[in-house]
Amino acid sequence: MSVAKFLRDTEDAAVIDVGSNSVRLVVYRLDGRSMTPYLNEKVMAGLGRELARTGALAPDGVESALRALRRFSTLLEAQGVTQVFAVATAAVREAKDGVAFATRVKSEVGLDLRILTGDDEARLAALGVSAGAPDALGVVGDLGGSSLELVEVSPKGVGRGETFALGPLALTRGEFDYDRVSAQADALLATSKVLMRGGGDFYAVGGAWRALARIDLRMRDHPLGVLHHYEMSRAETLKLTDLVRKQSRRSLEKLEDAAAKRADTLPYAAVVLERLLAASKFERVVLSAFGLREGVLIERMSLATLAQHPLIAAAEALAGRWARTRAFGAALERWIAPMFEGQIEVFAEGRQSVLRGAAARLADVGGPLHPDQRAEIIFDMILRAPLAAISHPERAFLAAAIHHRYTKSPPRHAAAYHRLLTEEAQAAAAALGAALRLGADLTGRNESLLASFEIGVVGGKLLLRVKKKLAHLVTETAQRRLDYAAACLGLTAETKIA
C-alpha cells in the first residue's frame, strides 16, 4: 500500500487506530476536505489492559489485535484502498514491548504502524476537532484507554499539547475508589500549563466521554440525537459526572446502550472530566465526533483543499460528486446573497453566509425523492446528515431551509424545529428556502441561465432584472416564487425587463 504526499479529491482513505482498548478501522470517502466514513469496524483487543501492572502489552490483546489487523488489511486490499494510515497511541507507545509489536505488525500484516508520541497524539486530535469546528477556541481533551491528551486550539491553529496517564486503564486498581482516582487526577492536572491558561470551551473527544454525553442527551430529552457539537454547560456536566460516578455497574447498564458497553470505565471517565473542570474555568463542554483519525487525514491534505470551509465541503459531498451540481450550488450561493442584504442575522456574525452557502449546495438534494414526501424526508435527512462545523440549532436551521425549498409549510411533528429554533430563526429559514426555490425554479437549475438574471433589494423592493430575450422564462409560477420570497423578506416584488 503506497501513500501519496497529499490526498486527492474523490479517493478513499483508511485510518487504522491501534489504541489501548480497541483497534479500529475507518474508511473515508474524500470529497475535497469532507471526510465521510463508510466502513467502521472495531475490535476490543485490550492491548493496554495489563500495562499499569506489567509495563507490557497484554499477550492475548496482542494476538487479538494482530487478528483484527489481518482482517482490516484484507478488507482494504479487496476494496482497492491504497491510502492507509495506521497509528498506535498510548499503550504501544508506553509498553516496553511496543516497538516489538509494531515490528510484528509489519512482518505479519504488512502495515507500517506509526507509534505516535504524546505530542503527536494531542496535535492530531486537535487537528481533527478543528476539521469539525474551525472556529473552535479553547482546549481539546482526548481521553483514550490509557492517556488523556490536552491541547490548545483556536481559529489560528493548534497550540501547545500535553499528555497525562489519566485513561481509565491507567487509573484502574481493583474496585473503583472515588477519593483515590480524584486525588490522582488532581495531582496530575495541577501540573497542566494548558489548563492554567484557560479560556474558551472544552472540546471533549473519545468514546468514554461520548458515552457520558449520550446519557446526558437522553436524560435531557434533547430533540436531536447527534453527538457532534452537542453542548453541556459546566453545571450540567458536573451534575452528569456526579450521577455517573455514583452508579453501580447494573445501574449504568440501564442508563443507555453505550453506557452498558463501558460500564467498567465510565466512572473513571466521569471523575477525570469532573476534576478537569475543577482545575479550569471552562463554562461549556462541547462534544466532538471528530478527533485523532480525522486529524491524521487533515495532516495529509493540501492547503488548497483545506481552504474550503468544512460545512460547504460536507454539503457538496452530501449533494453528490457531479460537477454540474457543485457548479449550480456555488452559482446559487452568489445569486441569492444580495437578497439578504440588511436582513437580521439570527446566528453569530458570519455564520449566516456560511449556512446560505451550504443550503445552496443542498438545494437539489431532494430532487430524486417523491414530491409527496420529499419535504418531510429532506428535513430529517439534513438534520442528521454527517455535516461538519455546525451546531445543533444551525442543523435545524439548515434542515428547515431545505425543507422550505420545497414547501411553504413548516415541518410537521419536528421537535428539533420547534425546540432548537427561535421564531426569528424559523422565519429566516423560510426566507432562505424561498430564495433557493426561486433561483432553482426560475432557471431549471442551470448556472449559466442564473447568471442572466440579477436580483437585489432596491428601495424596499425585491427587484428582479431580466434580459428581454429571456423574459419568457419568468412564468406565472416563477412570478409567484418571486412574490413569496419577497414577502418572506418583508419586501414587495418587482420585475424589470430590459
Question: Could you walk me through the main structural features you see in this protein, from its secondary elements to its overall organization?
Answer:
The structure is a single chain. The protein has helices spanning 51-54, 59-79, 90-94, 98-109, 118-132, 168-171, 178-189, 193-197, 207-219, 234-245, 249-255, 257-261, 266-278, 292-298, 303-306, 310-319, 323-336, 351-361, 374-383, 392-404, 415-420, 423-443, 447-450, 476-488; strands spanning 12-18, 23-31, 34-43, 83-88, 113-115, 138-143, 148-154, 157-164, 201-205, 231-233, 284-287, 453-458, 461-466, 492-497. The protein is α/β, with parallel strands linked by helices. A six-stranded mixed sheet has the order 8-7-6-9-11-10, with helices on both faces. A hairpin with a 2-residue loop joins strand 7 (148-154) and strand 8. Helix 10 runs antiparallel to helix 13 and helix 18 (351-361) crosses helix 20 (392-404). The model has no long low-confidence stretch (mean pLDDT 93).
Features:
about 50% helix; alpha/beta; 14 strands; about 500 residues; six-stranded mixed sheet; five-stranded mixed sheet
